Amino acid sequence: MQTEPKVVPQINYNNNLPTIFIDGANIGLREDGVCFISFVANLPFGNMEQARIMTTTKNLKKIVDGICKNLNYYPMKPSEPKVTAKIQRNRRPSKVESRTTMPVK
Q1: Among residues 27, 84, 79, which one has the least CA distance to residue 56?
Q2: Which of 96, 101, 79, 97 is nearest to 88 (CA)?
């Protein structure tokens, strides 16, 4: 059984758009699934916004996934401390009891 080759849509490039350099991005998420991204450059006189983009959360996840694949870099979500033992009120914990478990690096 042969599979058909995946058709990649052609991109029509706008040669009038400037190429910009950025040092960071600020991302805002709305409750309706729309994301606002502001790209910023660090300049000698201060930070300067270079571009703004709005897209859906679904599309932003695809963009981030593509960036990670191209860089071969997959960051992990930081773990949060977990409660491992209940501490009774007005009682000091013994040496073997632990309130939280922190990840060991």
Answers
A1: 27
A2: 97
